[in-house]
């Protein structure tokens, strides 16, 4: 079995991205960030969208998109880089095209860097 090193130096299986200790820390930071994000008034999500992103139907379609894209950032691949996808992005925003929220054709798997770069351009 192939092995690699986690960012902390722990040897892990090649299929994994992080060791269990780092995964726990990443999840803790993600939850803290999400809580802060939800509490900030300027970033308050409309309840409709918040409920949608917590729904089983979104989780199912998100998983299908990640499987279709082999868990890789599609925009990085176009630039010759191989990077894991962290986000499934709606090509046409659901605020403008609600009916396409579950369409695989409207979804693309991206890394956080590409996703943030796209949203910071607007």
From TrEMBL:
<feature type="domain" description="HNH nuclease">
    <location>
        <begin position="60"/>
        <end position="116"/>
    </location>
</feature>
<dbReference type="GO" id="GO:0005829">
    <property type="term" value="C:cytosol"/>
</dbReference>
<keyword id="KW-0540">Nuclease</keyword>
<dbReference type="GO" id="GO:0016787">
    <property type="term" value="F:hydrolase activity"/>
</dbReference>
<dbReference type="GO" id="GO:0008270">
    <property type="term" value="F:zinc ion binding"/>
</dbReference>
<dbReference type="Pfam" id="PF01844">
    <property type="entry name" value="HNH"/>
</dbReference>
<dbReference type="InterPro" id="IPR002711">
    <property type="entry name" value="HNH"/>
</dbReference>
<protein>
    <recommendedName>
        <fullName>Putative HNH nuclease YajD</fullName>
    </recommendedName>
</protein>
<comment type="similarity">
    <text>Belongs to the HNH nuclease family.</text>
</comment>
<keyword id="KW-0255">Endonuclease</keyword>
<dbReference type="GO" id="GO:0004519">
    <property type="term" value="F:endonuclease activity"/>
</dbReference>
<dbReference type="GO" id="GO:0003676">
    <property type="term" value="F:nucleic acid binding"/>
</dbReference>
<dbReference type="InterPro" id="IPR003615">
    <property type="entry name" value="HNH_nuc"/>
</dbReference>
<keyword id="KW-0378">Hydrolase</keyword>
């Amino acid at each position: 079995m192939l092995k690699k090193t986690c960012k902390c130096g722990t040897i892990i299986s090649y299929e994994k991205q992080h060791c269990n200790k780092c995964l726990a820390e990443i999840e803790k930071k993600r939850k803290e960030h999400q809580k802060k994000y939800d509490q900030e008034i300027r970033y308050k999500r409309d309840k409709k969208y918040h409920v949608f992103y917590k729904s089983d139907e979104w989780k199912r379609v998100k998983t299908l998109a990640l499987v279709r894209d082999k868990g890789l950032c599609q925009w990085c691949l176009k630039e010759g880089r191989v990077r894991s996808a962290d986000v499934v992005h709606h090509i046409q925003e659901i605020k403008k095209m609600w009916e396409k929220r579950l369409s695989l054709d409207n979804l693309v798997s991206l890394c956080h860097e590409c996703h943030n770069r796209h949203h910071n351009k607007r």
